[in-house]
Amino acid sequence: MSTEPEVKDNPDANRFEIRVDGALAGFAEYKLKPGQISFTHTEIGEEFSGQGLAGKLVRAALDEVRGRELAVLPFCPYVRGWIGKHPDYLDLVPAERRADFEL
């Protein structure tokens, strides 16, 4: 029986990871600086594709960094596109940087 995917920050690897039944299904890599986080790459394993896991991963990661009051720089095209489709997360990207990301 499948359980709900679990997203956790793995600061030692500089990435948020999503696991399905304990197996690593994907990750969102980041670079952390004081007050900001830059998302650089998101990847879902081929055997896990088509299950909506990338969206769940990004939502959970952004919810976590919102709680930490970090500014988000979405260099990763997937994260940037996801924020573009979910305007309630746009406030995480500093207003003066939104044009850089076409947001």
From TrEMBL:
InterPro entries: Acyl_CoA_acyltransferase (IPR016181), Gcn5-rel_NAT (IPR045057), GNAT_dom (IPR000182), GNAT_YJDJ (IPR031165). Signal peptide: none annotated. Gene3D superfamilies: 3.40.630.30. Residues 1-100, 8-94 form the N-acetyltransferase domain. SUPFAM superfamilies: Acyl-CoA N-acyltransferases (Nat). One of its GO terms (molecular function) is acyltransferase activity, transferring groups other than amino-acyl groups. This is Uncharacterized protein. It comes from Saccharopolyspora flava.
